[in-house]
Amino acid sequence: MRIGELARRSGVSERSLRYYEAQGLLTAQRTSGGHRDYGEWAVDRVVRIQTLYAAGLNSRKIAQLLPCMRDADGRPNEIATPKLVGELTAERDRIDRMIADLIRSRDVLDEVIDSASESATSQPAFTHPHPAR
């Protein structure tokens, strides 16, 4: 598939796809006319790249990680080094801490909302001190 179709199917801009290729995250064959040609596996790969970026990983770390992941086409994965496994475990732990912090923040916000709601419903509605004549 051409880059435009991959962009549509993955929801990622063509510019981002070119960036992924420049970073070594995505590869394409070239047609005789020089156009990029991606296999079906590329849609899954791009979705994984997006997910890893959203998790806070940078392109260098993603480039290390991607060969260890199996794509939708079942391409064999490569063996991860112990160092990479340790780094990825640390990234997962960082994400877990961020999730825990967000849950605590949401719980505090829920308490404030509950308190504000109780206060708002227990107060009488404002009436103008001088009724219209």
Describe the structure.
With 133 residues, this protein is mainly alpha-helical. The chain has two domains: 1-78, Multidrug-efflux Transporter Regulator, Chain: A, Domain 2; 80-121. Helix content is 59%, strand content 3%. Strands 1-2 form a two-stranded antiparallel sheet. The protein is elongated, with a radius of gyration of 25 Å. The model has no long low-confidence stretch (mean pLDDT 84).
Structural class given helices, strands, pairing?
mainly alpha
The gross shape turns out to be: elongated
Spatial separation of the terminal alpha carbons: 75 Å
The CATH class name of the largest domain reads Mainly Alpha
Helix and strand succession? Answer: HHEEHHH
Radius of gyration: 25 Å
Mean pLDDT: 84
CATH architecture of the largest domain: Orthogonal Bundle
Note poorly predicted spans: none
Largest β-sheet summary = 2 strands, antiparallel
Provide the CATH topology of the largest domain: Multidrug-efflux Transporter Regulator, Chain: A, Domain 2
State the strand order across the main sheet: 1-2
- What's the domain count? 2
Strand content: under 5%
Count up the helices: 5
The number of E-state strands comes to 2
Helix content: 55-70%
Keywords: DNA-binding
Biased composition (Polar residues): 116-125
Protein name: MerR family transcriptional regulator
Domain HTH merR-type: 1-68
